Amino acid sequence: MYISNTLILQLNLLATIVLLTVSCGLFFRKNNIKANIFLGFLLLYPAITIMINAIFIIFRKHNLLFLAPVNIGINLTFGPVLLSYLHFIQGKGGNAAAGKILHFVPALIVFTSSVYYLFIPGNELIRVFNDVLAGNNTYINCINLFLLIHIGIYLYIAWRRTKVYEARALDLGISETETSVKWQKAFLICIISVNILLLLAYSLPVVITGKAHIYSDLIATPVTALIMYGFMIYKGLSYHVIYSKPEYQAYTAAAAPLNSFIEEVEASNKQRRQSPVYEDEFINEVNARLNELFQCQKIHVRPGLKLHDVAAILSVSPAVLSGFINSRLKMTFFEMVNHYRVEEAKQLLVHPDYRHYKIEYIGEASGFNSRASFFSVFKKQVGKTPQAFKDEHSLPLN
User: Fold this and answer.
1) pTM here?
2) Across 33-37, 136-140, 376-380, least confident range
3) Per-domain residue ranges for the chain?
4) Which of 343, 327, 341, 244 is nearest to 286 (CA)?
5) How far apart are CA 219 and CA 211, in angstroms?
6) Nearest CA-CA partner of 78 in 50, 106, 112, 54
7) Relative orientation angle of helices 245-273 and 276-291, to the nearest 10 degrees
8) Measured between alpha carbons, how far is 130 from 212 in angstroms, rounded to an integer?
9) Where are the alpha helices (H) located in the chain, listed in sequence order?
10) Distance of CA 320 to the CA centre of its chain
């Protein structure tokens, strides 16, 4: 074995050991919960990939070539397991994505294809094996590319679900889920970054040399695995989302109103899509009444205005109102209220009667609870601070 291969093997063994250690810690915790177990499974994927790569690439065992599609088939189950983890870490009950067989059809197809490599004659198998190592095997290259696309689709779905979870929590004013949402977003960003690195490791040799380089997996995969390990140690512990059963039960109880609300919104949206005539009448009525409340009555200046408050005034359920705002106005309730508050602040900042008022008072008069939130939201929407906006648009004193 060449010294370079020895170093690569050591790197792969190190990454495998640290990931297996973290996974075992998640599997065998006292008073364990499903979320921890699914998180442990997610960390096993790179470990399994590393071990399989090392077996048939470094040691060049052509009779184990069937492990190439097996490896890809295993990784095609990553997406459903990821959605299942999010399902439980968001405090939801019932069946998760991993319980639906349809999610595993691509993996089953690729698994089945591995049988072909068991029946290839010896000399032909060696030729195919060398093609795979040289990155010239069309089938292996195609299913590798499909794997990246497949994982990308599931990451997009996972990100959308996390953003919906975050938006609904803001609409309801539930703060107990804030840390969990931060963890979910950070975890997904880490996975997305890892997959971008793997994509670059796969595509750059193709762009530069015109063919894939199988040895790039032996470097990129353990490197990204060690990144995952560092992330788990740093973020996982700092966010305290590796729950025990009592902690998880307390969290699910706090998140129960939010998850019920999400289900109500989804059911309401589905019902309105099935009744287009009613949908048009509903849209016109709610839109007109919202404009009356926010543009004429300026209800947004009330501090601490909640979704339930507006829903009660409109005599609709919070779920129905939230679904309308999300689908028709393309924003959350929280974003809509802040939009009107910023517009109110812009008018007050340049109004002659408010010229000598402090910026903080303008924010309070517009409905913001604090100076920090006023400055943050205003700058995000307008692109400048309230003071800069005032200086730019105010007329000079006579």
Assistant:
1) 0.81
2) 136-140
3) 3-243, 254-393
4) 327
5) 17
6) 106
7) 110
8) 13
9) 3-27, 34-53, 67-75, 78-89, 105-113, 122-133, 138-172, 178-209, 216-231, 237-239, 245-273, 276-291, 307-314, 318-328, 333-350, 359-365, 371-382, 386-393
10) 25
What is each CA distance from 62 to 3, 111, 212, 218, in whole angstroms? Answer: 22, 18, 19, 17
* Cα dihedral sign, 255-257-260-266: negative
Amino acid identity, position 269: N
pLDDT given for residue 5 in this prediction:
67
Separation of alpha carbons 192 and 194, rounded Å? 5
How far, in whole angstroms, is CA 383 from its chain's centroid? Answer: 27
User: Cβ neighbours of residue 180 under 8 Å, at least 6 residues apart?
Assistant: 89, 90, 91, 239, 241, 251, 255
Per-residue confidence (pLDDT) for residue 1, from 0 to 100:
41
Q: Which residues contact 269 (CB under 8 A, 6 or more apart)?
A: 323, 327
In whole angstroms, give the CA distance from residue 162 to residue 158: 6
* Phi, psi angles (nearest 5°) of residue 357: -80, 150
Please say if the pLDDT value at position 57 is more than 70.
Answer: no
Q: Which two tokens stand for residue 164?
A: 């919906």
Q: Is 100 left (phi over 0), alpha (psi -120 to 50) or beta?
A: beta
Within 8 A by CB and 6+ apart from 61, the residues are 55
User: Which two tokens mark 257?
Assistant: 């109103």
Q: Looking at domain 3-243, which of 1.10.3210, 1.20.1070, 3.40.50, 1.10.760 is its CATH number?
A: 1.20.1070
CATH 1.10.10.60 fits 254-393, yes or no: yes
State percent of the chain over pLDDT 70.
Answer: 91
Task: Give the model confidence (pLDDT) of 107-116 as tens digits.
Answer: 999 999 999 9
Sign of CA dihedral 49, 142, 194, 57: positive
Segment 277-321, tens digit of pLDDT: 556 677 788 888 888 999 889 999 998 888 888 888 988 888 888
Q: What is the CA radius of gyration of the chain?
A: 27
